[in-house]
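Quick one, tokens below. Sequence please?
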């Protein structure tokens, strides 16, 4: 495998793993589960979506009439709503029981899809050279550490390149998270507005 192809493959895997850690694997799994609920051809899920759609229609009809003027019709729609709520609750309980195994499978897949290729690259390409360092740039022990464990001395090996890339991606995500958090902080109150509010209360 060419060094640039190996580098791109490893970079993709590291970015994928960093995004999982940054956004939270549980959050990603939950999003996948919600997408599955929305687009799945599972008969239970289709039935649940049908009940929910019917409930929305009944609620619209119920809210459009007055219980005083059309008490009989309103009562009938109210009973229908209660009936649908019970069906939805029972069906959601069944589906939630199956969601545990679904989420477990997705969790394993997310782990394996990162670790299996990464182990392959680390073992199979442990002697691969990402790039060579010019002579006499670093002391011997630094060159040795950069080539660790199996690359020729004077080169940067895959293991050390993975470490450097991981640190770089982690740094970018940390900066992004810090900037996002600072933007979400409450803006300070204008002192002039605060003084006006105090003077109003005194009056």
């Amino acid at each position: 495998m060419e060094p640039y192809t190996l580098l791109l493959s490893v970079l993709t895997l590291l970015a994928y793993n960093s995004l999982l850690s940054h956004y939270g694997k549980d959050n990603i799994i939950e999003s996948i589960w919600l997408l599955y609920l929305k687009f799945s051809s599972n008969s239970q899920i289709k039935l649940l979506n049908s009940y929910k759609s019917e409930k929305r229609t009944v609620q619209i009809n119920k809210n459009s009439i007055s219980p005083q003027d059309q008490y009989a019709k309103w009562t009938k729609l109210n009973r229908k709503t209660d009936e649908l709520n019970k069906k939805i609750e029972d069906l959601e309980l069944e589906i939630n029981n199956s969601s545990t195994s679904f989420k477990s499978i997705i969790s394993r897949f997310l782990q394996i899809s990162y670790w299996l290729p990464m182990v392959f690259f680390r073992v199979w390409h442990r002697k691969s050279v990402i790039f060579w360092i010019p002579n006499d740039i670093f002391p011997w022990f630094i060159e040795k550490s950069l080539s660790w464990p199996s690359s020729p001395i004077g080169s940067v090996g895959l293991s050390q390149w993975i470490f450097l890339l991981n640190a770089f991606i982690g740094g970018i995500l940390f900066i992004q998270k810090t900037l996002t958090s600072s933007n979400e902080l409450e803006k300070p109150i204008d002192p002039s507005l605060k003084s006006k509010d105090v003077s109003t209360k005194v009056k």
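The helical segments are 3-23, 25-39, 43-63, 71-124, 140-147, 158-184, 191-202. The first strand starts at residue 129 and ends at 132.
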